[in-house]
Amino acid sequence: MNKFKIFVNLFFIICFVFIISACNQTKNLEDNENNDIVMPEETPKPENSIIYYEKTLLTTIEPTYYQVGYGENYYVNEDANGNFLSLKIDGIETEFKSGFFAHAYSVLRFDINKYIKSFKTFFGIGLSARGYSQASMKFTVIIDDEIVYESNLIDKSNPSGYIDLNIKEKVNYIMLVIDDLGSNGYDHGLWGDPMIEIGREVSNE
Known about the structure:
The protein is of the alpha+beta class.
């Protein structure tokens, strides 16, 4: 009988020690988890913003590359003789205070690297070559390696045109090309009032 009581008491003691040990291990595990785990902070959301567009004349931006078919330079806001830029539009002689004069074959490249909403410009044969039948050109606009506009033949009978492009995207560069179509006699090309709308990002808060 005494042996049985001793066995029972020993059994309860062992169970009690086991339970206490298990509780301590659970507490230590919880403490370790609380110490080791770092809750990540919430990633801040990007600020809301609005893109405002501002009209900008291309003549205020210096080309990063240019090429002309005659002479050494292109001209800004005047022709090669220092006269006002002028195009014949719908039969009316029209002067432009802003623009480019370049003898074809010509290239004017402008690095933009911003959002552009639109591009607008007049183009055609300058007054100095208007009366010559040899003057014949095509005007092309290239944006990021893509031809986005190509004119019909511009000559004595069709001396000018107008471009109005809706872009609304990020633009790396704009390139204005005047093709002399194989012969550059009197190919006095003109871009009148070339205008882009450049995006400016502003916080909405």
